[in-house]
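Q: Hi! First time doing this. I have a protein sequence and I read that you can turn it into a structure. Is that right? Here it is:
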Amino acid sequence: PVSGKLPYILWGFPLGIVSGIIGIGGGVLMIPVMVMFLGFSIHQAIGTSTALMILTSIGGSLSYMINGLNVSGLPAHSLGYINLLQWFLLSATSIPMAQIGVKVAHKIHPKILKYIFVIVMFYMAFKMLGVL
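A: Yes, that's right. Below is the predicted 3D structure, encoded as structure tokens:
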């Protein structure tokens, strides 16, 4: 990977703003940048993106909790806009599946993994456009 903090700031700041504006995870934009411009392998880029997702999800969750406090009409077991029952169910399935995904990804050749990533990104783009 590229040394020094400046390239990461110059890529991360604007891509973070763009991903926030269009409502997608930053990894969708940052993984290709990390691979093509910052010298990461596809496995390193996916791992880095996933690790940073923990931090961004904590910030997002806190803001949903705080902004949803004292809002009427929310489902039972909600802490702000976060429904704790749904959070638990999502976490209980996502965490083990993420571990399986990591094991599978490390068994896939990097070139094949890049193609899979591109296919998934096109699928998601078409889905967001309402084509699929």
